[in-house]
Every structure is written in structure tokens, then in C-alpha cells.
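Ticket reopened. Same input as before:
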Amino acid sequence: MAVAGQVSLSEPFPVADTAANEFEAAIRDHSRLVYRIAFSVLRNHHDAEDATQETFMRCLRSLRRTVVRDWRAWLARTSWRVALDRRPRGREISMDDAAETIASLRVAGASAEEMAGNRQMEALLERLISALPTELREPLTLSTVEELASPDIARILGIPEGSVRTRLMRARQILKEKLSAVLEGGHGQRKPETIR
Amino acid sequence: MDSENQKQFVDELLDAGLARYSNVAPRPGLEGRILADVRAEPGRRSWFVWAGWLASGAVAAAIILGVLALMRLRTPPPPTVPVVARGGVQIGLVPTPRPMARQLAAPETWHGRPGRVHGRDARATAPRQAAFPSPAPLSEQEKLLLACLKLPPETQESIFKKGPDVSEELEIKPLPPLADDSEMPESENDR
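Engineering reply: fixed in the latest deploy. New output:
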């Protein structure tokens, strides 16, 4: 039964009927996951949407020569690669302003949930994550997508599940230390570029 | 205790921040846009295929034309001269020998030792023939002769006997008298 706003793939489709039906279902089931993975890397709605469309187009092109068993894993991996290809290089986020805002919120007695919803806090966290080493940043970024558990992250990155857990712990530890320094007002003692 | 509170607060803050980090929803209609893109793909793909074929054909045609032009430039048809028999009858066409590299080179611009052709110059200007010796087309007479040879011997004999028969006895007729005999000196025959 057709649902309002839902597009049917009954029109001519570039692959066989069975694959077309599976692909249609995959678009409906996993487009949100694909979008979130792209957003976790690109941090921009417009870029994330472009990356999502490119992900599905890539999958469609390789569908003619590939038998897909796990659509979710396949799309997640492709989305991750597409997003990494599109990631802007050398983007800098000012940390001083963000740190001051967070510290003032803390003094004002704001809760952790309220502070996390603040734009400055989001920018600060983004800056701290981007400063992490790649081997720690990648699993942490993927772990922020709520649909992905450690086995999924391990499959996307091609590393053992144990390594994913270890790296996540290390990444969180580093982030905690940096956040503590910011909240204690220690951010002003070091330049943002030197914070590691 | 204050330190413990601070640590717990940082934990909560980090958890909340990471939970929000990628918890975003796409703009409405993303699925529709993806499906529209997917449907437009075959047309786009066929256009690319056609463009690719056209480009390949154009490149192939250009290469073939270039090779043909090069072959035409490097192997011009050999000039021929008529071969004439003693009776003035043309019996065929024979290609003339090609000029040597030294002859083709402009003498006023060449400053090397006379009588010596550099290998590179010789290679560059040496004539290149498809077959050696170059085949010459048969003349009309040669073609007729070949056609005669294919006929039965009796027919050949009758054809060749039509010419003047030199085996017959020659009849020598007296010469007509000259207009003025008195002015002629005496010959040995008159004695």
C-alpha cells in the first residue's frame, strides 16, 4: 500500500527486479543510518545529504556485479568511505570562545544535559575530537552513531572488536582530561593548537 | 569530594555531548530525492556510454586516417618510363631507379665530405619499396602474346604464319633507269 510521501520503484529501474526491490527496501531502512554516518564525519547537513546520495549511487553501480548479503554493513562501510573522501581538510574551530562559554555555564550551575545542548559545547567537542589521533578518532566518531555497536564499527574499520573497545576507552579518557582542563579554566594556559 | 563531583560531571557532560554528536535527522524527503537520483541514473549512464562510443570512434578514425596519410607520404608510387624495343614498339613500363639520398639532399646546404652519406640521412630519404623488383604492368603487346600462348598450338601456328614468309625465293627486279645516264660515272658492272 502506498504511503503519502513515499516513492515507489515500480518505474523502470536499472537493475533486476529482485535486486531493485532489495535496493528500495535498503534505501527506506538504512538511509537515516547512512546519513548519520556521513554527518558524524562531515558535520554539515548539506554535505551529509550529498554524501548519502553518492553512497546509494555507488552501491547501485556496484549492485550489478555484487551479491549483497548484509545491506546494513555494506551501506555503512560505503557511507564511511564516501564521507572520508569528502571530508574537508584543515578545518579549524576556535576553542577559546567555546571554553569561556562552557566555563560560564558551569559557574551558573547549568546541568550536564543543558550544557551539552549548547552550540558552543558542540563546537568545543567537535574541536576536541578532531584533535584526536586518527586511530582513536575514527572509532569514536562511529560510536556516536547510535545505530552502530562495537561489532559494526569493527567491520567498517576492518579491525578486531577488542581493538575498537580499547580505542574507545582511550579516546574517552583523553576527552575527559581535556574537558576537565577546560572546566577548571586551564584552557587559557595553553594555545588551542597545542592541546592534544 | 569536590573532585569526585567534578569527575562525575565531566563524565555526564561527555556522554551527553557524544550522544548528541551524530544524533541528527535528515531533512524530510531524503528517500524521495535518493530514489529520483537512482531513477535518473540509467539515462545518464546511457548518455555516458554513447558519448564514450562516439569519442572512441572519432579517435579510431583519426588514427586510421593518420596511418593512411603517413603510408601515402612514405611510399609514393614509383615513376615509370616506357621501354621501347628496336623497332620503336613499346613493350612495357619499368620503374625508374629512385634517386639516392645524396641526390635528394640539397647540394648547397650540405657541407659534409663529398661521396659520403650519413646513415641517418640515408635512412630518412632512402626509397622504400613494397616489393623488389617493383612490378611493372604488362604492355598491350605482352598481354596479346600471353593470350596467344594460351591458345591451342594449331591456332598459334596459323596466327604466326600470317606474317611475311621469308623462306620464299626473293625476286630481284631491275632498278628503274636514272633520268640522266651520261652524267653517271662508269661502274664496275658496266665493264
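The radius of gyration of chain A is 20 Å. DSSP finds nine helices and no strands in chain A. Please confirm and we'll close it.
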